[in-house]
Amino acid sequence: MPPSLAVRLGSLEAKNPIFSASGTFGYGEEMEAFVDPGVYGGIIGKSISQLPRGGNPIPRVAETPAGMLNSIGLQNPGFEGFMKDYLPRMRDYGTVLVVNLVGDTIDEYVEMARRLNEEEAVDAIELNISCPNCPEGGMEFGIDPRATEILVGKVREVYKRPILAKLTPNVTDICSIASAAEQGGADILALVNTYLGIAVDWRARKTILPGVTGGMSGPAIKPLALRAVWSVARSSSLPILGMGGISSADDVLEFMAAGASAVQIGTIQFVRPKAVLEILSDLERYLSEMGVTDISEMVGTLHSDFVVR
Ligand SMILES: Cc1cc2nc3c(=O)[nH]c(=O)nc-3n(C[C@H](O)[C@H](O)[C@H](O)COP(=O)(O)O)c2cc1C
After folding, report:
1. 100, 108, 255, 261: which has the fewest C-beta neighbours closer than 10 Å?
2. What distance in angstroms lies between residue 8's CA and the mean position of ligand 1's atoms?
3. Which structural domain range is residue 234 located in?
């Protein structure tokens, strides 16, 4: 019998631990030519804001060794556009559906969450309190424990299914933000969003991204993200959806050993859009070779006997 890849994150159950990360997959439709979105354990659409956003001026991405910087600026069709043009299609993918929300104000998050509470097809919401590329909202909430707790708490009042808080690593102590999200009533912690960085064209004496900074993602950030997941797993009792630079089944199992109950894959999908298929088949093979019958047995198994913080 093949090993079970099914995972549980609190009350959220998924057939396997691979979720597509917000912003790297559109709303599923961008991937359909490459892979059936239904093969993922769950899909998380690009962040939705209350009103449509056109995004930042181009160029919006800069390639870096083993990664990329992006400054998309949360281009999206707005809440009503999403509900009308994208959600109906996403409902039919036959996998866990998570809607990622971003707002300039707490009221904006709350209003969208209230509406989504009525949509039974939406299994969970992910609060993007970690976007590094928007002038207001986003990361402004996620770098302050008090603001994080208040925001999550207000959303909790109107949204009854699981709430994921997506954390930024651009803080001194991510565990204090994780704890604030837990206090506010989050069910799952999703981490990490991108790391702030800069790409420079020294000949032109200019930054490559017009907004100067961008969010760094891809394999280059994996050790940093693993450390964040490991730290939060030791300090919080909430389930973790880990991400940052994952590109293989080995990476997935590293994150799970460090304490993630499941993971998201993002940037690797721009390089290998079918990465999820390879990862799922390698996961089955590796677990069979190790004699592991249920992938959840791997969660939090990292030995820490010799760990000095
Ligand atoms: C082009 C691009 C766009 C992104 N857009 C969003 C977004 O809209 N909302 C969000 O919460 N995260 C967004 N992210 C962050 C990813 O979801 C993920 O947290 C990050 O890229 C780290 O994972 P990775 O290294 O596997 O890509 C974006 C990342 C990239 C590369």
Report:
1. 108
2. 23
3. 7-53+66-195+216-298
Quote the ligand 1 centre to 274 CA distance (angstroms).
17
pLDDT in tens, 226-235: 999 999 999 9
In a domain, 204, yes or no: no
Please name the residues in contact with 80: beta carbons below 8 A apart, sequence gap of 6 or more: none
Contact 41, 18 (CB under 8 A): yes
pLDDT digit string, tens, across residues 286-305:
999 999 999 999 999 998 76
- CA nearest ligand 1 atom 15, residue: 193
**Domain annotation covers residue 46:** yes
Cβ atoms of residues 137 and 162 within 8 Å = no
CA of 248 from ligand 1 middle (Å) equals: 17
**Confidence category of residue 255, pLDDT binned at 50, 70, 90:** very high
The CATH number of whichever domain residue 16 belongs to comes to 3.20.20.70
Given the CA of residue 193, which atom of ligand 1 is nearest to it? 19
Q: Is residue 205 part of a domain?
A: no
Neighbours of 147 (CB within 10 A): 17
Q: Give me the number of domains the chain comprises.
A: 1
User: Using a 6 Å cutoff on CB, does residue 20 contact ligand 1?
Assistant: no
309 is a domain residue: no
Active site residue 175: no
